[in-house]
Task: inverse folding
């Protein structure tokens, strides 16, 4: 049962707002809701502010503390995300049992889909790196290091959750100067998630391709995975379902070889080569003898036809 009462629109603007909330063929990037729990330490507050700076303007920050326990009752989180039109949430809290706690999750059809609880082991904020930062609305380059991200279903969902968190608009093509920000995600042997943020600098190399240097700009954080709550396979498959309009239709009579070259096969009707009009070249003209023989043949055919009658 929905906690928000849905009213019929009375104005044209209200109707447009309701239409924008309906499922779209091409969904835009999800907004992120940042909120604090009952109590928050300084590290958690700084982390939420830094993540808010990286995600701007596709985010919203709540200033009040919220008495919410996500792993016990998700109704309050679902209400807040629906009210603020956010598909992802990041909630920070601290307690004696779980200090410096961060809960990251996402919503599907106003219900919780996936949720992961992370604990801060080491943190350095944006202010701890006194160098030039990147601007807002910059699409980051996401780098996932190591094969451990595909070991278990929980780690695969966590990787997908990070991609959803920092995803922006879809781009068809990019230029080299447009790649300014890189986010690195490394999973260590002790299941520590290390996140590093770098600014990409293009230097002169004396060649056509520039030399690339990475400068760490923060935030730098090491997480430990505490609790996870992932959706069932059926619900996860349903959330990833795409409309039929976007389905790629298979093109007939097209093949691609090992080198990536596309070959096409064309089917045509039987050609009547004898009746094709060719170029009138002097060498192809009939000789007088050939014309006489052709006329004689026609006369003989006509005589034979008369005799038959």
Result:
């Amino acid at each position: 049962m929905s906690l928000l009462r849905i009213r019929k629109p009375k104005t044209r603007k209200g109707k447009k707002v309701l239409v924008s909330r309906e499922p779209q063929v091409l969904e835009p990037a999800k907004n992120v809701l940042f909120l604090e729990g009952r109590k928050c330490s300084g590290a958690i507050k700084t982390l939420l502010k830094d993540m808010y700076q990286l995600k701007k303007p596709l985010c919203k920050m709540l200033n009040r503390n919220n008495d919410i326990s996500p792993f016990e009752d998700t109704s309050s989180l679902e209400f807040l995300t629906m009210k603020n039109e956010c598909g992802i949430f990041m909630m920070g809290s601290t307690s004696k049992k779980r200090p410096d706690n961060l809960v990251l999750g996402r919503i599907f059809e106003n219900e919780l889909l996936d949720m992961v609880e992370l604990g801060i082991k080491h943190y350095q904020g944006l202010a701890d790196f006194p160098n030039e930062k990147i601007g807002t609305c910059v699409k980051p380059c996401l780098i996932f290091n190591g094969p451990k991200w595909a070991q278990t279903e929980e780690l695969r969902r966590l990787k997908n959750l990070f991609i959803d968190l920092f995803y922006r608009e879809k781009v068809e093509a990019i230029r080299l100067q447009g790649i300014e920000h890189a986010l690195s995600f490394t999973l260590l042997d002790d299941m520590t998630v290390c996140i590093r943020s770098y600014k990409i600098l293009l230097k002169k190399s004396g060649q056509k391709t520039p030399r690339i240097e990475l400068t760490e700009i923060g935030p730098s954080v090491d997480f430990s995975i505490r609790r996870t709550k992932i959706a069932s396979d059926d619900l996860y498959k349903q959330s990833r379902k795409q409309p039929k309009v976007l389905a790629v239709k298979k093109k007939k009579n097209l093949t691609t070889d090992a080198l990536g070259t596309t070959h096409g096969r064309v089917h045509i009707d039987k050609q009547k080569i004898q009746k094709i009009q060719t170029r009138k070249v002097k060498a192809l003209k009939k000789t007088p003898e050939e014309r006489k023989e052709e006329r004689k043949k026609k006369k003989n055919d006509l005589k034979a036809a008369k005799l038959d009658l």
Observations:
- The chain has six helices and twelve strands.
- Residues 72 and 229 are 11 Å apart (CA to CA).
- The helical segments are 12-21, 42-55, 75-83, 153-166, 233-239, 288-308.
